[in-house]
Amino acid sequence: EDGTASGSPSSDDISQSNDHIREALPSLLHRGPDATLRMILRKPSHERTQEELELVYEELLHIAALSHLSTSIKRELASIIVFEAHAHAGTVLFNQGDEGRSWYILLKGSVDVVIHGKGTVATLKEGDDFGKLALINDAPRYTVMSGTPQKMLEHLLETRLGGQVGPNDPFLDDFLLTHIVFMPTPILIDELASHYHADAEVDLRTSSEEDQEYFMTCKRRVVQFIQRWVLLVRHAVFDDPLAVEFIEDIATDVESEGLLQEEASIIHHVLTQLARYQVGKACLLFFY
Questions:
Q1: Which InterPro entries match (predicted)?
Q2: Strand ranges (E), the chain
Q3: What is the per-residue pLDDT across 191-246, written as a single tens digit (0 to 9) for each?
């Protein structure tokens, strides 16, 4: 029937509306869970129900940046994590010198890492995280948007090593070739040592299996970083007494750790290269 004077819809109008609903349903069903999650994450922590916390926890299991955290920590995060959206390009999340208050994980979009005097030194993509180091240390941030050079190193160790990226990684290579500009070798060595000895103040006898595996992963990634460092800038590393001492100290520790057999092989190869370099350099000096 046609529409009446009172404005009732005609049969054609109803049919078209039903068609529109059928067309929109798949999109709504797809967006529904995402919209529900965002709604929960916008709630204050104390207003989230147990069911909502469980839903958030299930989503956290799929975020790579949190994969190394224990189950209990992820459940704690479910109650405090929030959703933040920035629709406009160029929005500054935080500035150099700001106190660390948040740990960010990129779900969509990208963030430029800007260091004063250096410009944009890296671009973080979906799945990357930043700000954790400054948050833990309650330290001021040294870069705009993403944090300190130390955070860049942490990002590399956590996301670019251990087979997570192919053998050719421009981000890692750029850092190794240019770190001396914004992170002198003594500072780099201190940060690597801190990462390697992340378990220094922990009683491993009472640590969970997840925590123990995390500590072993930290050690493996530092060894892999050393391997890549030596491969890319061998002479500069082997000519630096601090770097050589650090490599030798790590080698001693790795060889005493039964769970790091593959890393022991890697560090042994690095020491062999070091010995050959030192012998070759000594012969060259003797010749002259």
A1: cNMP-bd_dom, cNMP-bd_dom_sf, Ras-like_Gua-exchang_fac_N, Ras_GEF_dom_sf, RmlC-like_jellyroll
A2: 104-105, 111-115, 119-124, 129-130
A3: 999 989 887 776 667 777 777 888 888 899 999 999 999 998 888 899 999 999 99
